[in-house]
Amino acid sequence: MKVVSSYLLFFQLLCILCIGTGFDAIDTMGIGNSDLHHVGVLYTAYTGYILITVVFLLNYCLEVTIPYRTSSLFSICGAGLFLTTGVLLLVDKSDYIRHYVSPATTLQQYMILVSVIISFATSAVFTIDSVLTFRRQEDF
């Protein structure tokens, strides 16, 4: 149980770090004002996968098994969502730099960059998880 619970808590931490580093920067840079569909994808990925990992953790604690195909599917979807999130953040950051370069916003630009890096790292972790889960073919 220690390995699985720490593994799920690691996913939780990655999602929370994405929200924490991106929220203020997205708000300050005004990304939600012009690209609301980008913000919708961002927060859907972040909060959705926080909820999914909490449900997986509760199922594991209650000793309810989740089929390996379901777990792999969630991981594949998570990898895709976090990859899309990272790309959208890069696009929004480059658009912002092109139109509104100002030294006062360098902190927000670094926070967006950190959120992009964590999004890509989370996508890689979800990809590895889906491959290993499907290869082992063990229920969660």
TrEMBL record:
Arranged from A to Z, the UniProt key words for this protein are: Membrane, Signal, Transmembrane, Transmembrane helix
Q: Where are the transmembrane segments?
A: 40-61, 73-91, 111-134
Question: Which Gene Ontology BP annotations are present?
Answer: septate junction assembly
**Which residues are the signal sequence here?**
1-25
Give coiled-coil spans as residue ranges: none
Q: Name one GO cellular component term.
A: plasma membrane
Q: Fetch the InterPro entries from UniProt.
A: Ssk
Q: What is this protein called?
A: MARVEL domain-containing protein
Q: Which organism is it from?
A: Zophobas morio
Q: What is the lineage of its organism?
A: Eukaryota, Metazoa, Ecdysozoa, Arthropoda, Hexapoda
